[in-house]
Amino acid sequence: MRADRLVSLVLLLRRRGRLTADTLARELEVSTRTVLRDIEALSAAGVPVYAERGRHGGFALLPGFRTELTGLNHDEALALLTAGSARGEQAFGLGTALASAMRKVVDALPESHRSTASDAAERFLVEPETDLLSRRLVTEEVPDTTMIEIRRAVLAGHKLRIHYAATDQTPRWRTVDPIGLVTVRDRGYLLATRSGADRTYRLSRVLAAEELPEPAQRPDRVDLDQVWRERCAQFLSGDHIAVPMRVNPKRREDLLSTAVAVRAAEPEADGRLRLEVTFQDLRHAEWALWQLGTDAEALAPESLRASLRDRAAAMAARYADSS
Q: What does residue 34 show for φ and ψ, rounded to 5 degrees?
């Protein structure tokens, strides 16, 4: 861990020039005292880092201290930098590692590629935290200690013990055979088997985790994309409700953010879309359609139409003119 931090410190100084101890501490997520100890260790190891005193002082490297990675061309470097900016820091607790890797990539580029790739990457923004309607994306957080144990078990092929809080159930410990990790729309999932049966666990509901020494019962190779498609099909075949509906095409994305699935989009003569939308249950469908107001109409089942009609009537009565 310290070795990685020392490398990151050197790369920060190479890329950004003179930096204060406080700035380095913020970037590396350590204390100022730790930074000062690391500076001393680098100097003792022969790294040409020196201190400048005064109001605008800080730490810097002597010119010419570098290595180059010549195998990357401009577009390859740009792809890496863009991928590294795509909110990947939220995935599976790898934020610090991603930041360190990006610093190494930039520093290792030939001089002819470094500035142009970095400047170009600044022109791309992938998956910002808010959309055009100023809706903030909610990212589910998993404690680092828990995520590290899960990640280790997945990569090592070991059994995993998790303290899991399923919906409307008391949290309890389970021992599973981990297959892989998936992130979808800022939600992370652990794909696993338990006693031979397929299981999918929401990472945000894992309260604690422990990697076990026993090997997991799983195939040596896995097509995770295929496994995820199969899990999705299993999920949709459960006790859900399918609602045929008509919707203003401008509100389709709103449906995608709330529904379990949206299928069979067909344009109609009046410009609306006819969709088949899957919801968790009748209550979920009523809530989602109410958010869309007159921009959506449920064509069936009649129980859902009746619930929405009764709710609308009650709202109209509440706001009726009493003068």
A: -65, -40
* DSSP per-residue codes, 170-201: --EEEEEEEEEEEEETTEEEEEEEETTEEEEE
Bridge partners for 275 per DSSP: 245
**Please, what is the angle between helix 95-108 and helix 2-16, to 10°?**
50
Partners of 272 in beta bridges: none
Predicted TM-score (pTM) above 0.90? no
The residues, any chain, with a CB within 8 Å of residue 44's CB and separated by 6 or more, are none
The DSSP annotation for 135-164 comes to PBP------HHHHHHHHHHHHHTEEEEEEE
Half-sphere exposure of 322 (CA within 13 A, CB side): 4
pLDDT in tens, 99-143: 666 666 666 666 666 666 666 666 666 566 666 656 566 667 788
Cα–Cα distance for residue pair 267/275, rounded to 1 Å: 9
* Residue in 237, 271, 241, 265 with CA at minimum distance from that of residue 253: 265
* Encoded tokens for 311: 């709710």
Q: Are 275 and 264 in contact (CB under 8 A)?
A: yes
- Reading the block at residue 142, the tokens are 């998993």
